[in-house]
Amino acid sequence: MSWSVRGKSSFLVYLLALALLWGNAYLLLVNHPAAYTLDEQSYLRMAQGSFDVPVTHRYRLVVPLAAGALAEAAQGFANLISPSDKPPLGISFFLVNVLLLAGAGLLAFRSAVAAGAAAGPALLGMAAMLTCGAATYVTGLLLVDSAVVVAVAALYYAVHARSGRVLLLAVVLGPVLKESFLLFLPLAFLCGQFVPWWQRLLAVAASLGLLGAVHWAIDAQLAGAATDSVANALAHGTSVGSNLRWLFSPRGLVICGGVYGLFNLVVLAGFWGGRAARGQWLRPLRPGATLLLLLAVLAHMLLSGEMSRMLLLAGPAVAVAIALIVDRHPLFAPLRRLLIPAAQPSLP
Question: Is the pTM of this model over 0.85?
């Protein structure tokens, strides 16, 4: 496939990803409660240039700064029509998050195709990821998770497509988007053998240097910021036990199980039919790489204050699994005939 054709098809898939996200997220945005959550308050202040916020949020500056810059530009344009003293930060966060998460959806689609799924099932897998409750939540509210989802999707795509450049880029930029992306580095090291080991080490060194520079630049403006970081890490460690108990409680299982909704049934159906039927989609899924990704997601959940939201990080793996199940499992043969119709003879 030529670059021009591939570029056009990728652009159309990206537009579809935007369409899948836009309506639900915008409805959540315009019906936002009057009071902001603690997370949203922090990111709003960061978007306005103040980093004196809880240390958990302080260094996740990419999305807030991008939203702040977009809001300032939009305010200048809006003032030509109707002057206002408040930049439109809500819609700016919405636009940044939707554009980023649509990119993650495109990468999930490309991962499914690289794994061997046809375009129709790959689009269905992407839809499962982008229409889940967590995707609506992080794009409709003033949050920053969309950026790290892009990094995880890029890393997973790199493993499936054996793309060294994408893997190195994800490793370098991921920790700056969210420090806990470091939990995904075992995936890059154990499943990224197509990239020389010294290049992967150099990428990790660059990412740690970049992360350290961000911390230094922000800590220099705030007294006691370095000790705050240590205390925050210890506090997160103490929450693991309570989060684990909540996860396996009836309430936790119902809430987390509802993130991907009825698409869970597709994954469960994939295990029906015996070893041969399972093997048709499990082998191209790259079970080792997928297991490492899911373990990193579990670690994120146990360290997080909102465990169900972190399940969006598993979205790339969920999308590829659903695409491969629909594409290859015998149970979905009737659906395949709709998604992948036989070639029709050309008209004279």
Answer: yes
